[in-house]
Design goal:
Shape: globular
Strand content: 35-45%
Number of domains: 1
Number of helices: 4
CATH topology: Glutamine Phosphoribosylpyrophosphate, subunit 1, domain 1
Radius of gyration: 17 Å
CATH architecture: 4-Layer Sandwich
CATH superfamily: Aminohydrolase, N-terminal nucleophile (Ntn) domain
Strand order of the largest sheet: 3-2-4-1-12-9-13
Distance between the termini: 30 Å
Number of strands: 16
Helix content: 10-25%
Amino acid sequence: MCQLLGMNCNVPTDICFSFTGFRERGGTTDIHSDGWGIAFFEGKGARLFLDPQPSSTSPVAELVRHYPIRSTNVIAHIRKATQGSVGLENTHPFMREQWGRYWIFAHNGNLREFAPQFDGSFLPVGLTDSEQAFCWLLQELRRRFGSAMPAYPALFAALHELTLDLSQHGEFNFLLSNGDCLFAHASTRLNHIVRQAPFARAHLKDQDVSIDFSEVTTPNDRVAVIATLPLTDDEVWTEMPPGTLWWFENGAPVRTLPTRPGPARRAG
C-alpha cells in the first residue's frame, strides 16, 4: 500500500522537515518505491512534482527537500502499486480543475469491483483505481452543485455521502484539497498532529534530523500535519479513528463525520 502526507496551515509554511523523513519511506525505511509526488498550493495556483522513481533516491525529491516552498495546503504521496503499472501517468497526486480552482487528490488503498460510469466531464488518464475515484468524486459533486461551488459545510456533507459509497469497495484513505481546505478520510489508518504555540523541538523517525519549531515560527502560527504513520518519535500524534472523514482549515480540524456506523463527531 501507499503512504500519504498532508499539511494544512493558517499561514504559508514549508514542509521541508516533514518531507525529509517522509521521502525515506519510499525505498529506504519502507517499501513504497513505485513513484512519488507532491503538490503545493500557492494562491489559486499549484506546483506539482511527480516522479515514477523511488522518492528516497529521486533527484526531484532531493530538490523538493531543499526547496522551501511556502504553502497553506500540501499533499504528498509515495506509491506501492496495486492497480496500474509504475509510470508517470499513474503517479499521485492527481490534479483537475473544478469551479475555477485546482483540486489535488491522493489515495492509499485498493478499491475492488469499482467501475464508475463517466459522463465526460472528468476522465482518468492512467489505470489506477485512485484516479478513477477522484474523477468520479468531482463528477458527482458537479452533478449535485452545478457550475457554482457550494459553501464548505454543504461540500463536506456531499463529500461525506460520496465517501460512504466509495468505501464499500475497499480501503479508501485519501487527501483532497482545493487550496482553501484539506479533507482527509481515514479508512483504515491516518494520524495527525497540530503544532502551535508553545512550539518545541521535534525529531524524525526516519532520519536523525531535529528541528526547533520555536526558532522558525511566530506565536500565531498553526500547522496541521496528516500522515499515514507518525513522522516524529518525540511528539504526540492523534490517531484518526478508522472510518472518519475530516475537514481541516487554518491549521486545525473543523469537523469530522463517521464513514462507518457510529455517532457524528466534532473537532476544533
